[in-house]
Write a structure and sequence with these properties.
Number of strands: 10
CATH class: Alpha Beta
Radius of gyration: 18 Å
Largest sheet: 6 strands, mixed
CATH superfamily: 2-enoyl-CoA Hydratase, Chain A, domain 1
Order of helices and strands: EEHEEHEEHEEHHEHEHHHH
Length: about 260
């Protein structure tokens, strides 16, 4: 019997959630979604927890959509979903991290691309592998960004820098991600988890009620509401899936070549 797609451990007031499909680069597959859903439910049911760490095994934190199996999902719906609903359902499990009341640290031991980058930026604090690659490469695939990326990224790095990253679909190193404010820290791969645990323990040593309420105030005062933005993005993303450019972008990715976009 294979190991679970997502591992869960709780110790000393800290929960660690580990994406555990390294052979598939921890892509957004149904078993990963289900494991993450169950892990988040366990976090919410445990009143003793004070911090959560989300990490992955292997060279990728999360590679985003699994283009071999499809980039939209019905999520077990009992009716036929509209294309935009299927696009939103692709990101919904990751967006549920936003509902966790205690601080969430992303221990980004490996690459985080596309939807996987979206998973990274919905964490409260990020510790990156300085040599790994991070970014929202949607336009390089011929599709509109999803996972509230157009909402979150400008709030992290500012509008001009976010515009450059999103328009180009550029991927940056962990070291550059720290320089421009996408991540809090960029360290060697072997130090990602120890640094994340150090931060988690520091958070866990503070007064837990005060920390939870501080997190709530922090995001309320920023008018933080990414989910409606993700729903809006899903409308446009689902339409770009209909274009020839998106088909060319995905084909080029799978064939490991440079795409040739024609604007149709």
């Amino acid at each position: 019997m294979s190991e679970p797609a997502v591992l869960y451990e709780a110790k000393d007031f800290i929960a660690t959630i580990t994406l555990n499909r390294p052979e598939n680069r921890n892509s957004m597959t149904e078993d990963v979604f289900e494991g993450l859903r169950a892990s988040i439910a366990r976090v919410k049911e445990d009143p003793e927890l004070r911090c959560v760490i989300i990490t992955g095994r292997g060279k990728s934190f999360c590679a985003g959509a699994d283009f071999k199996t499809g980039v939209q999902r019905d999520g077990g719906a009992t009716r036929t979903l509209l294309p935009n609903e299927r696009s939103f359902n692709m990101y919904k499990p990751f967006l549920s991290i936003l509902s966790i009341e205690i601080p969430v640290i992303g221990a980004l031991q490996g690459h985080a691309i596309g939807g996987g980058f979206g998973l990274a930026v919905v964490c409260d604090i990020r510790v990156a592998n300085r040599d790994a690659r991070y970014g929202a490469n949607f336009t390089r695939l011929g599709i509109h960004p999803g996972m509230a990326t157009t909402y979150i990224l400008p709030r992290l790095v500012g509008l001009p820098r976010a515009a450059e990253l999103l328009f180009t679909g550029r991927i940056v190193s962990g070291a550059e991600a720290a320089e421009i404010g996408i991540v809090n820290h960029a360290v060697p791969e072997a130090e990602v988890m120890p640094r994340s645990l150090e931060l988690a323990r520091e958070i866990a040593s503070a007064a837990p009620i005060a920390v939870r309420w501080t997190k709530r105030s922090l995001y309320r005062n920023c008018d933080w509401d990414p989910v409606p933005a993700a729903e809006s993005e899903a409308q446009l993303q689902s339409r770009t899936f209909e274009t020839e450019d998106s088909k060319e972008g995905v084909a080029a990715l799978l064939e490991k070549r440079t795409p040739v976009f024609k604007g149709r």
